[in-house]
Amino acid sequence: MRADDLLRPAHALAQRGVRLARLALDALVPPTCPVCDTPVEAAGLICYACFPRFRPIAPPVCDACGLPVRGEDTPPPICPACASRRPLFGRARAVWLYGGAAKDVILRLKYADREDLAVPLGWLMARAGADLLREADLLVPVPLHLRRLVARRYNQAALLARAISRVSRIPVAVDALRRTRATPALAELSREEREASLIGAFAVRPRWRGRISGRRIVLIDDVLTSGATAEACAEALLAAGAAAVDVLAAARTPPPSADAA
Ligand SMILES: [Zn+2]
Ligand SMILES: [Zn+2]
User: Fold this and answer.
1) Domain locations in the chain as residue ranges
2) Ligand 1 centroid from CA 240, angstroms
3) pLDDT tens-digit profile of 242-251?
């Protein structure tokens, strides 16, 4: 699957003549839409129903939290929420607003044994986070708690980090962070409760400290929600001496004012 195709409607690629080259493979493995499994013309294409259900994040975005803002792109804008309280991480970027087809594809990666989807998602994330990756020394995925890792078999953030590493050639420290304890499901908590539940919830493994110290880290996650988890991870990495921590996610929860997906 070609990641660039995820942002392109089916007819665009057909026009580029890629279709013929894929006919042989497609005859063996009939291609389907990665979001809904509807048959499509060639591997990597999004079907016509799913394509408009993605909401890509386009500039200008808040330089800190990465949410879309009104106005000019330069100088880098800061949204009112970040102006009153800057997150512990430096900058966050994501490919899409969470919801619609972005939610569907991320849930498939997480729960439906669709590990293959990490590859195109990694490509798109590398593109959305190009500014961050240009300055980065190391990628670190947000860890799953061991109990969830056993239940789910793989950590989707680690899969995404490996995929981004292959594109960007920035090394990945898959197990640099660990969860010190299980944290409650954050979705039902208020911002204050989330922050309280996450204090000290992550730590840098001692053997990674030497490679974290002085380095610019890009933290990788599938979805950035309130940013509380990313901030707790950033806190642990900064405490271990990281020079900077930025965040790159496949999707981020839209602000309350944005239209529901
Ligand atoms: Zn579809
Ligand atoms: Zn912001």
Assistant:
1) 1-53, 54-252
2) 43
3) 999 999 999 9
